[in-house]
Design goal:
about 350 residues; alpha/beta; Rossmann fold; 2 domains; eight-stranded mixed beta sheet; 12 helices; about 20% strand; globular; disordered C terminus
């Protein structure tokens, strides 16, 4: 029994060592505070461990949800790959997350852009950052924020857009139908869900309160009063008018083949139409989900957990990290920008 216990102890210690090693990144992380609108944005500045400062910078714009600065460590493999290209990364907690003041559900897309603009202004004053070489990385909902930032800050030098949508309404309908198909919904269930959606859109269109929404649909199915307030502010979001602000910038559009959140064909068509020319590069990953995680990994909760613990860099679709790194290596320090 003692020998068995000792052997188990060795195994547990060994596994713990593997987890620690695999979750240690070649980065220098600094906790930073950025001021915005009288509030503190608690963030992380991830710097390369090699090379000479000042470093060019990638500013991270989150997708939907209560995201902290590291996205529960999900960002760290990406930061590490950027650091190997000589770039620093900056990210911060959304309002109300990790003890930060405020509530991200009170924000509009314009509010989120204003927050990022203050973070960029802060970064330009940081001695370790080259203020002439700052670009943006954004995922999902950030697709409505990235072009707003670039329109107001003509010093933004590049954009990496991961799984962005163009129209909030179109994206919402696509997501609803994709999830229903995935879950094997019947024709009657699909029709009922579409009727419920149309009811919600009609109420949003006339600014109805949450209580009226609940009376109209019955079970709110996760739609809280705070979430209704957030959707009411943002449901008309459409990047069509803002995307021309990215013309002339190097833009890497990243899309997954198993995305049930965003209609990637619609997104690619919109980007190609609004951003014609060689500055736009589209990278597709057929085996990737909305978050660019390998589909076979995300489809299995036990495998997803084990991969996140023992091989977090292997979560992502093949080529995702390397392609972003190569994009950054190729970015010119001072690209020409067209007026939108």
């Amino acid at each position: 029994m003692l020998a068995t216990a000792a052997a188990l102890g060795v195994v547990v210690a060994g596994l713990g060592g593997v987890v620690l090693w695999q979750n240690t990144y070649d980065l220098r992380e600094e906790r930073v505070v950025v001021r915005h609108g009288g509030r503190a944005l608690n963030g992380v500045l991830a710097l390369p461990t090699q090379g000479k400062e000042p470093f060019p910078l990638v500013v991270f714009i989150h997708g939907d949800g209560p995201v902290d600065a590291t996205h529960d460590t999900f960002y760290r493999p990406i930061w590490e790959s950027f650091a190997r290209a000589g770039y620093a990364s900056l990210s911060w907690n959304k309002p109300g997350v990790g003890g930060a003041p405020g509530d991200w559900l009170d924000q509009s897309m314009d509010d989120r852009a204003a927050e990022a603009l203050d973070a960029i202004a802060w970064a330009r004053q940081h001695p370790d950052i080259d203020g002439r070489r700052i670009g943006l990385w954004g995922a999902s909902q950030a697709g409505w924020v990235l072009p707003k930032i670039a329109a107001k800050d003509r010093g933004v030098r590049f954009v990496i857009a991961v799984s962005p949508a163009v129209s909030w309404h179109q994206q919402g309908r696509y997501n609803l139908l994709a999830e229903l198909r995935r879950d094997g919904a019947s024709d009657a269930e699909v029709a009922a869900a579409l009727r419920r959606r149309e009811t919600g859109l009609e109420l949003l269109g006339r600014g109805a309160p949450y209580e009226e929404y609940v009376r109209a649909v019955g079970d709110p199915q996760g739609m809280t009063a705070a979430r209704w307030r957030f959707v009411s502010k943002n449901h008309t979001a459409d990047a069509t008018a803002d995307l021309p602000a990215l013309r002339g910038l190097p833009v890497l559009l990243i899309l997954g083949g198993h995305d049930v959140n965003v209609d990637t064909a619609d997104t690619e068509g919109g980007y190609r139409r609004l951003l014609p020319g060689p500055a736009l590069r589209v990278a597709r990953y057929p085996d990737a989900t909305h978050g660019l995680v390998k589909h076979v990994v995300e489809a299995s909760p036990p495998r997803l957990t084990l991969t996140a613990l023992f091989a977090p860099r292997a979560l992502f679709a093949e080529g995702f990290l390397a392609d972003q790194q190569n994009f950054l290596l190729a970015v010119s320090p001072s690209p020409r920008r067209e007026k939108p």
